[in-house]
Amino acid sequence: MQRFLQELMSPQLMAVVYLFIAFIAALYLLAVAYVFIDARRRGAQMWWLWGLIALVPFVGLVAYLVLRPNSYLSDREEQELDMALRERELAQYGSCPQCGTAIEKDFVVCPVCNTQVRNVCPSCHKPLDAHWKVCPYCRTHIQ
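The structure assignment produced for this chain is given below.
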């Protein structure tokens, strides 16, 4: 039996086996490096812990792929900035205190419930903000 194995394990076959083992080891090291890099880019709180978990062959990589954050940190920051910009744009208009309908800047009453949302200049009849003392359109003093 041992003679058969010696004949079967020719130098060429041993080279193929060693290359296969080297390929598997390289894949393992690349997977660990991928987890380290990807966990940092996704903004994981303890990215180094994910790297240590990835050292467990196969199970660590699968656990990371299942439990990793679903988006990159830069994408989340961009989404938060976009949401803040949209909220700021909406805040410029406001909403009705009675029914919550979106109110544009030049509305005097809510178009849904007819609640007065802004004061009106007695001279030019343009909408005024509540804290204004003078109408900016016609210089009329507001009481």
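Interim note for the steering committee: Helices lie at 2-8, 11-41, 47-54, 59-67, 73-93. DSSP finds five helices and two strands in the chain.
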